[in-house]
Amino acid sequence: MHLKLDSQFLCSDQRMDTELVDRLVLQLNRIYPQILSDKEAHRFRNLSVPTKVRLAELLKHLHRKGEEACHEFYRALHIHTEDIYSSLPSRVREREVADSKCTNDKTVRQERYVLNDRGPMFFLSCFSFVVGIAILYYYGGESWHKKCTGVFLHCSAVRLSKDARDVFISYGEVGK
């Protein structure tokens, strides 16, 4: 239960004033009388007792009542004071966990679909180079084939394995 973790924060927060505690008690009493009876609501609204003490007793009472009572208290707190509700330690931790999961998912998705980080211009320049070589090879004539094919195959074979390099070089020499 988060209420046990948040109760110290709620009791020490200056924004939890008498008026806010009264509104929370009244909402729990009017809307959920099974959670907070009239007698209990009167006890938690007693102005002769300091607000921090009343709030601590209310939180202990709700914790003893169970999960539904705690959930309704959080709902009432969310309705009446969004800023306190969003700054609760349990809410902050949930947001951090959700944010870390979200950023992890985004990085995994990016890594999954990005093949390289060079961008589309790199792809277009490589593609244009290959198309240019293919056009020269196709329309260049026999003399160009004999001069450039061997040199081109030797340069292309630099990054290949030893067996593939031997095949490329022998193909280039056979064509001469």
TrEMBL record:
Superkingdom classification of source: Eukaryota
Residues forming coiled coils: none
The keyword Metal-binding is assigned to this record: no
Signal sequence extent: none
Assigned keywords, A-Z: Membrane, Transmembrane, Transmembrane helix
CDD domains assigned: CARD_BinCARD_like
GO CC list: mitochondrion
Spans through the membrane: 119-139
InterPro entries: CARD19, CARD_BinCARD, DEATH-like_dom_sf
Keyword Iron attributed: no
Protein name (record): CARD domain-containing protein
Organism: Oreochromis niloticus (Nile tilapia)
Phylogenetic placement of the source organism: Eukaryota, Metazoa, Chordata, Craniata, Vertebrata
UniProt gene name: LOC100690622
